[in-house]
What we know:
homodimer, 481 residues, alpha+beta, CATH 2.40.50.140, BirA Bifunctional Protein, domain 2, 2 domains, eight-stranded mixed beta sheet, 14 helices, 23% strand, aminoacyl-trna synthetase (chains A, B), ATP binding (chains A, B), Asparagine--tRNA ligase (chains A, B), ligase (chains A, B)
Amino acid sequence: xxxxxxxxxxxSTTTLQEINAxxxxxxxRNNQFIxxxxxxxxxxxxxxxxxxxxxxxxLKRITTGAAVSVTGTLVESQGAxxxxxxxxxxxxxxxxxxxxxxxxxxxxxxxxxxxxxxHLRVRTNAFGAIMRVRSVLAHAVHTYFQxxxxxxVNTPIITGSDAEGAGEMFKVTALPFxxxxxxxxxxVDYKKDFFGKETNLTxxxxxxxxxxxxxxxxxxxxxxxxxxxxxNTSRHLAEFWMIEPEVAFNDLEDNMDLAEDFIQFVIxxxxxxxxxxxxxxxxxxxxxxxxxxxxxxxxxALLEKLNFVLENNFKRVSYTxxxxxxxxxxxxxxxxxxxxxxxWGADLQSEHERYLVEKHFKCPVILFDYPANIKAFYMRxxxxxxxxxxxxxxxxxxxxxIGEIVGGSQREERFDVLVEKMKALGIDEEELWWYxxxxxxxxxxxxxxxxxxxxxxxxxxxxxxxxxxxxFPRTPGSAEF
Amino acid sequence: xxxxxxxxxxxSTTTLQEINAxxxxxxxRNNQFIxxxxxxxxxxxxxxxxxxxxxxxxLKRITTGAAVSVTGTLVESQGAxxxxxxxxxxxxxxxxxxxxxxxxxxxxxxxxxxxxxxHLRVRTNAFGAIMRVRSVLAHAVHTYFQxxxxxxVNTPIITGSDAEGAGEMFKVTALPFxxxxxxxxxxVDYKKDFFGKETNLTxxxxxxxxxxxxxxxxxxxxxxxxxxxxxNTSRHLAEFWMIEPEVAFNDLEDNMDLAEDFIQFVIxxxxxxxxxxxxxxxxxxxxxxxxxxxxxxxxxALLEKLNFVLENNFKRVSYTxxxxxxxxxxxxxxxxxxxxxxxWGADLQSEHERYLVEKHFKCPVILFDYPANIKAFYMRxxxxxxxxxxxxxxxxxxxxxIGEIVGGSQREERFDVLVEKMKALGIDEEELWWYxxxxxxxxxxxxxxxxxxxxxxxxxxxxxxxxxxxxFPRTPGSAEF
Lengths: 481, 481
């Protein structure tokens, strides 16, 4: 007999004869009521066991975590909290779960404990909800771009280029540490490595993505990216998923419009598709914040915050305006910032971004036109700036509670300007010959951005540590599973 | 003025005043007709330049590969082959393309030359079509699983486990080759590496995927996987994308049903969405095969072959039956096979798979119930087999022209049997403690498979070298771009 998913049983419009459900026992009360979950929904279905006619041996094996198969009738529930329940006629234990040993007991576990059990934490309500929301958000990303005719491009993970400049890279190699092949000069002989050259894990697919945008018009990537940086924070992972759209003929304004429309679309999509998971996560956050002082609690509940992003335009502010606001801000004057903003040209720290977003504007903010010398080589130099105050067509989108969620720019489309910039920064033109070809042959204005997928999941789920929104987090000192 | 995509112009239902199009010149004929392409479709739009009123200087710059912006009127075309064309009123050169230097001239290039210019080959008709088809196929994958309620899981790329056993692994490290930290015994001290242990690039997300299936019920992965194997063939890549669904409570029959339904869905999806690209690729294949002897040409044209897969069930054949067929086959008797099949237990080579699929059954074939000792440790041992003839619930799907496209199995759900198998093979139980937990706590029958995405793209596009269906191929000795 084919089993029916718990979600479909709970959404049934009638009672049903002879159904089978399979799943895992969340709790077993009064030797009678199984709360059964199969991962198809956050909701359990109540299974009422005929305990008088069930052997004690079997009843004892109905423990939290056990896999069971129940056959019976879907009837209207007498109890509160559910429309239907299963009147069990036949029960089979598929896989036992020793109550003494199963780590996911029906009680509150610390997030740290759950991280150490990342292979089992997804059996809890919270992590089931997070992983379903993450999945639906990923599909929202593809749906948005595909419906607009963007081409999904799988840029390479192993890269022979180390000029991307977005951060420290991991080495990928098939060479041994012992008796490493050496050149006559005693250097490591990467010609003998698998790819015949030194290779790393990608920090961004942007440069390769640009070559495709200059042929297909609108493209996006969505794949893993890596940073070998020793950042042990709640916002950084060594391995994370990034979304990078790139559009030919888009200028920076178009780029901002795209980013804003995209973020609003995917948030709306997940609110439509995952109302129960989000409601649960809203409750979880409220509960978590009860232990915090009033001042540190969120001003809005989760769904209210998501709606706020849908209903309000992101505030667009130039770097220069932002510096003025920060210079005149109370924390700057009272020297409460760790890094005091004195003059134009200063790089913004997380504390400044948070002030702008959370205290000053109280909404998502797009900062644009940053000083050229604090941004990457490929960003479009603005025309007509004062000497010493050159700016580039960069944009960062800042979100409350998250900080930077998007970084993007209009790209420098002028071959000569780009080469000059690379020379000034010591970036090897030979190595990026293929990138420069996009400017040699049929160059045009184009723009794109990168969005860290886990930061988006953080925002949508109301979680606060990025390790809790990816299945198996990779961080300094940790690559378990 | 906002530009309109070429695809939308060609699909217009009326003529239009004042439109703007942007794209790249494919050809320029008679100083008058630009074939303009912007990647939104394989079709170019013809732009008719008023050459009498256009300066010679500008006309000279309209070269293959140049980026241009044309403003004018969308009118019914007088010429054959297109419904509409643009009567150009204003033309702007956005980016020149030196006709002497641009590698993608409007002539036939070898596939090898195009691989060396992977950043530009996507500006050709064939590679534009391939990359659009690849993108739509990827979306078909997500759409299929999401509509069925599967949860997309991003299993880790960097793995601390080397027990997956699917192939040779690449090392991921932040340690230097010079002055590598060493333990007192002189071994490499991986405790000092980024993750505090030895790490590799994943060869499969299956084991992690199983832990999620045993909580969420139905899951799938779709991400990059790696093999550090020196296989310089037209069917192997060092970096490729794999799709791995895993379903709790599915047995091997359910697994076969899922794989077949899935493949038919995605092929139908791409046929519906990409008719023009596929028609072009069908023509390309016919053209390519003209140079081959009759016997080596495909029996069916591309679309016919795709329809054949949609309309016919895959033939399900046990390994034991397959061995009988092969043993009695003409090439085996005449010793035409490189590896002669003498007895039950032999591992099947590519030549045997091709014989079964292309000569004997002439349709996709699912082989199942393989000898236990030629398959992976996690596959479910069949009950009631003869001693010495133990089989496992494995399945491989073989496609004409491609060979193995899917490998899957029902998993060994019995803790004791699994541990015994691991011991026999010397696989460290300690290292896979988390995998074994799925069998310790609430184990159940479950099954899954892996599908190499590029092999699917090969089949659908009719290309014959796997390096031509991924944007930037990684193979032994090659990691350019």
